[in-house]
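Morning!

This is the sequence you dropped in the shared folder:
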Amino acid sequence: MGKTYERIDGRLRKFIEEQPLFFTATAPLSGDGTVNLSPKGLKGSFAVLDDLTLAYLDFAGSNAETVAHLRENGRITLMWCAFQGPPNIVRVHGRGEPVFRDDPRFPELLAHFPDIDPGLHGLRAIIVVRAERVRDSCGYAVPLMTYDEDRDLHGRRFAREDDDSLSAYFAKRDIAASLDGLPGVPLPLPPSVS
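The structure's back. Tokens below.
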């Protein structure tokens, strides 16, 4: 039986912070727009900022659906599943905001991710999520799977980019707009933070 929580603390926070993988779900306001579901999981790229605020690093990728949807309406759901240990699923429904590299809050937020080299993965933004509803459920049907390690492919691929070449890469991928034409990541990217 699922339970709703007032805040993310104690056992719930520990569970979330220990998971090597989570998922984000967003959608545009348009009823025929593209719903987006994305896996996230690079070690050190997620942080619980306080008992109702979470953040994760948004890296170079194939599109910018999450950013575009958040810019349009702010709705987001994050989900973690226990693939090892006791079964559990936790969902955080809330409001999110992309904080871009030229935002004055960016350096302070980036400090919450000390194990990540911001230049290594093509960091585009930090997604900050304010929880409005926190729920868990049984997770009995989630399979048991083992976590071996993070893949190093993403870091190896984007480590060879500088700000100019990364902006050119993004321009080719047209991440300035979502699949549905909503504003995505503003280009050219502001200079990276060291």
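Headline: The domain at 3-173 is CATH 2.30.110.10 (Pnp Oxidase; Chain A).

More detail when I'm at my desk.
O.
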